[in-house]
Amino acid sequence: MIGLRVGASVIDPPVVLAPMAGITNRAFRQLCREAGAGLYVSEMITSRALVERNAATLDMVTFGTGEQPRSIQLYGVEPGVVANAVRLIVDEDRADHIDLNFGCPVPKVTRKGGGSALPWKRDLFAEIVQQAVVAADGRVPVTVKMRKGIDDEHLTYLDAGRIAADAGVAWIALHGRTAAQMYSGQADWSSIATLVRHLPSTPVLGNGDIFCATDALNMVAQTGCAGVVVGRGCLGRPWLFGQLAAAFAGKPIPSDPPFTEVLATLRRHAELLIENFGEITGCREIRKHIAWYLKGFVVRQHIRAALATVTTMANLDALIAQIDPHQEANADVMAAPRGRTGSSRTPALPDRWLESDRLTSADALTIRHAELAVSGG
Fold first, then answer.
1. Where are the domains of the chain?
2. Domain 5-253+342-372, CATH 2.170.150.40 — does that match?
3. Catalytic residue selected from 104, 212, 234, 283
4. 283 in catalytic set
5. Counting Cβ atoms within 10 Å, is residue 319 exposed (0-12), middle (13-18) or buried (19+)?
6. pLDDT in tens, 51-62
């Protein structure tokens, strides 16, 4: 495998936490770092909001004490704005690594030509990546995360991979699904292997359906990828990163922790959220994680309902105390995919987007509004 580096830092094991909106804030990243080594990427940040110094966005690119390497994922659709955002990050020493998002499949993003819809316009994709790499000026590595394409009839990953590699990106991460698939079905690991063969001199990372450490080893063995990107698999189980570290080191993979430790980790997660964002926001943020932590365990319905509206740490502690901590997880439930699944759908795209793989004047007018449709940074 080709090794992964961020500046002087070697990413060992070659494991990357995928950016997830509303999930991979600095509290969750700290929890994952405490479990194991790797690269932990921020939530997706919009380039325009960063350039305009939006207060909420600047807070999202504030890293925890000792968080190294610092990694930011940028989303943008206008080459000049993306370049300015990269320049700001580099000049103000705000991060050690910049990842460009071309993989988001959600309709509010693709409807305006952003995310996983954008690589279809080869010229626009090339200009964004090229300007970002030039703006980084070799001081901070720039990488790309993308999907296979819009749907099976409109695949972009081979052309986009070559364009990004020629522009000088440090690596390319491929999620083995199209935008149409969202998170349904199985990820196509064969597409990752194809991209590895297509780009022999540029590291390729694989993403999709890594729910346990052996999945990561299998992906590397089957595809030859240089590392893995983990998203939904770590939801409610940040200890996965410790298991991944052991697996890549050739050591015995630790078992999942007992329920007593799961509950302790849930509480630790809440503490970190409150420490970083205050009790009101922290308790609101932990609610979305609770069902993932409790997946596969028996918890009475009225307690689950109360946990979904928890407002204080004392409230959380009182509810956790009512859960039987001495129980085994349901193996069948634990083996099921975590997080979003759903079904395939026709991607939401701008009018006549697929008629040309070059940016038209009508496309340019539409795409200028793409960042305005993305909230949370």
1. 5-253+342-372, 259-328
2. no
3. 104
4. no
5. middle
6. 999 999 999 999
